[in-house]
Amino acid sequence: MGASAAGSSRGARRRPTRRGSPRLPAIPPAAPRVPQPITVVVCTRDRGGLLRESLDAIRAIDYPLMETVVVDNAPSDDETHDLLAHEFPEFRYVREDRAGLSHARNAGLQAASSSLVAYTDDDVMVDPQWLWAIAAGFARSDDVGCVTGVVPS
Q1: 68 and 58 in contact (C-beta within 8 Å)?
Q2: What's the mean per-residue pLDDT of the chain?
Q3: Structure confidence by residue, pLDDT tens digits, 3-54
């Protein structure tokens, strides 16, 4: 009588495998990964120990076109400045004297040299492939304005 659901696609012929069952259609190759420049912004306030671990993880990111901006938000001492000067000289230090995460993030955005900005916190250990996932999210369409990810708790 009628066609079954499995046979309802017109014009699609599947070659049988050696055992006679149909093969699945071929999956097209993934688009090549083309990196876009991304600025990583880390906002911190008087948490040098946590910050060191976070910056170590950022340093280990496997992404060719990135810069890192560390925003020291209303610091009570020079610990973050000294940490970056001695252990992370390739990262840019920005001091924001107005307290509050919004002020810190805005200072990071203003300091960013890339049009794509990825924010993380000073107590987060990012994955080495994190920026590839961010770039892939923006590459999905020209009208993507924001990309986020899962934050395990």
Answers
A1: yes
A2: 86
A3: 434 444 444 455 555 566 677 777 666 566 779 999 999 999 999 989 999 9
Please state, in angstroms and rounded to a whole number, the distance separating the CA atoms of residues 7 and 28.
22
N- to C-terminal Cα distance for the chain?
A: 54
Neighbours of 120 (CB within 10 A): 17
Q: Give the whole-angstrom CA distance, residue 127 versus residue 153.
A: 15
Residue 135 contacts residue 36 (beta carbons within 8 Å): yes
Report d(CA 125, CA 122) in Å as an integer. Answer: 8
User: Which amino acid does the sequence have at 69?
Assistant: V
Q: Residue 121 corresponds to which tokens in the numbers above?
A: 């916190």
pTM of the model: 0.78
* Residue 38 and residue 135 in contact, taking contact as beta carbons nearer than 8 Å: yes
Segment 52-81 mean pLDDT: 97
Axis crossing angle, helix 79-87 with helix 48-59, rounded to the nearest 10: 30
Which of these, 40, 65, 48, lies nearest to 126 by C-alpha position?
40
